[in-house]
Specification:
Bound molecules: iron/sulfur cluster
Structural class: alpha+beta
Largest sheet: 6 strands, antiparallel
Radius of gyration: 33 Å
Length: about 500
């Protein structure tokens, strides 16, 4: 199989009677059967971890002192801040968040090019919540056969009770999911109290309502339809895969010709493969597909069919791995009867090295910028109208608004000065009678996490006026940390 034909296999399998491709296949309810095995265990572990992270994170506390919220992860929209443990991001530093999103995207490309759609199969929220909803469904209604029987049976009190229980549990999970989300945007304990006493803002109730509804619909009803028809990732991922990417593969060179009657076939001298056509790999599949038909767009590589088939192989005393994670390279080798050895290490090949390099570069740059970023910012706005004022004694005055931003949740003493402008005098609004010359230090108290705004006037006497407009600067320094910031501006002679 060439790489092209391998990629071409990632197509929607639904076709019309005339052979043309269907845009949408009417959903058929899927009843995935419970399965035991290594990958199922791994999925339980990942499901528990991801759900725990999602539900618990807003309740974690992080002491930032008395002037900042103590929630470890908080998107503080009202004050336009993002807190992540010891990191505080201001709106002007939003590029960190953009950088993190780029890293997440490149990371996903890297993981997909090596391990295929593991994100879809194990960690995607849709997969995790569908798994949780299926767990509830199985608990209330039983495994596959019992659920099919229940759905086919007439309505009775027992059926009504089971359906009511299942949907109530689904709605409760959906409500918890929507509820947890809003706690990322406000102090969780306060919002929880306000929410239940109906004192929370309307947007909180609306968000919970929308997320509860979408979780309930996506996790309980649409399930695999979301992955197949709504998510763009299955279409994009084909470009990330090559002959060295791991995908769940049915090793047909070993399984075919399949037969459910192996003994008779052997007795009559017919060739038989290892597949006993038991359909176990099909009934456990949450996407309702048969991996023996080859790679399909719907396959999320959850590997539950591997677990199911390995169980069957154990029972019939054949080697495991009739369905396995394999690369196209390995498959082709095995198909040709050659020894299967991955000649190119799947982690070290041009595609993965490029992804890794971009990912590492983005990560290191962000770490560097984060470690060396200044927590003090000085912004100077020159008065526009007029730029300069000629006073009665012939001297010229310029007005400025100096904004000093203390980006730390701590109070600081700071020193401000102007320099680079000979014979100029500085006056500050609110400091009547005080005059400062170039290099003189003005002592300031900076409030934690606040913008300190000063109205400043610079005047030069008539006899010292320069011939043209002059550049000079304002400079601020935090006394304790010695952190400094300098901003250039101009002194204008004419309005
Ligand atoms: S075919 Fe196998 S790996 Fe793919 S979705 Fe179904 S069970 Fe999961
Ligand atoms: S579980 Fe294995 S043996 Fe059974 S049908 Fe699937 S591939 Fe064949």
């Amino acid at each position: 199989m060439s790489e092209q034909s391998f990629i071409e296999k990632f197509e929607v399998t639904a076709v019309n009677k005339d052979g043309s491709q269907k845009l949408f296949q009417a959903p058929k309810k899927i009843y995935p059967k419970r399965v035991e095995g290594t990958f199922r265990q791994l999925k339980w572990v990942i499901m528990t971890l991801t759900l725990a992270v999602y539900y618990i994170t807003p309740w974690l506390r992080w002491d930032r002192g008395p002037f900042a919220p103590d929630q470890a992860v908080l998107v503080d929209i009202a004050n336009r801040r993002f807190y992540f443990f010891f990191i505080e991001i201001w709106p002007q530093e939003f590029f960190y968040v953009a950088g993190l999103l780029i890293m997440a995207g490149i990371g996903l490309f890297l993981v997909t090019s090596v391990w295929g759609r593991v994100w879809c199969g194990y960690a995607c929220p849709q997969t995790v919540w569908v798994d949780l909803f299926l767990l509830v469904e199985r608990f209330v209604e039983g495994d596959r056969n019992q659920r099919i029987k229940l759905d086919e049976s007439k309505w009775s009190f027992s059926k009504l009770k089971k359906k009511f229980l299942k949907h109530s549990a689904w709605l409760f999970i959906a409500l918890l999911t929507g509820g947890a989300w809003i706690f990322y945007f406000a102090d969780a304990p306060t919002l929880a109290r306000d929410f239940f006493t109906f004192n929370a803002p309307l947007v909180a109730y609306t968000t919970v309502l929308i997320l509860t509804t979408t979780t309930y619909l996506f996790g309980g009803f649409m399930k695999e339809q979301v992955c197949t028809y709504m998510c763009p990732w299955p279409r994009i991922q084909a470009a990330m895969l090559d002959e060295n990417s791991l995908v769940v593969t049915y090793n047909d060179y070993r399984g075919e010709p399949r037969t459910a009657h192996q003994k008779q076939a052997l007795a009559s001298g017919e060739p038989v493969g290892d597949c006993i056509d038991c359909n176990k790999c099909v009934v456990v599949c949450p996407m309702g597909i048969d991996i023996r038909d080859g790679q399909q767009l719907e396959c999320i590589t959850c590997a539950l069919c591997i677990d199911a088939c390995d169980g069957v192989m154990d029972k019939i005393k054949k080697p495991r791995g009739l369905i396995s994670y394999a690369t196209l390279f390995e498959y082709d080798k095995a198909m040709a009867g050659e020894p299967v050895e991955q000649s190119v290490p799947i982690l070290f090949r041009p595609r993965t090295l490029v992804y890794s390099a971009i990912w590492a570069l983005a990560g290191l740059s962000m770490l560097f910028v984060l470690a060396t970023r200044s927590r003090l910012d000085v912004n100077v706005l020159h008065d526009r109208n007029p730029l300069a004022v000629q006073l009665k004694d012939g001297s010229v005055r310029n007005g400025y608004t100096v904004k000093i931003l203390n980006m730390e949740p701590k109070q600081h003493k700071a020193l401000l000065k102007f320099d680079g402008l000979a014979n100029a005098k500085m006056r500050l609004e609110g400091m009547k009678g005080q005059v400062f010359t170039a290099g003189d230090l003005v002592s300031l108290d900076l409030e934690p996490d606040q913008l300190h705004v000063l109205k400043v006037y610079i005047t030069i006497g008539q006899s010292h006026l320069p011939n043209s407009d002059q550049d000079f600067y304002f400079h601020a320094e935090i006394l304790k940390s010695k952190e400094q910031h300098k901003t250039n501006t101009k002194f204008h002679l004419k309005k």
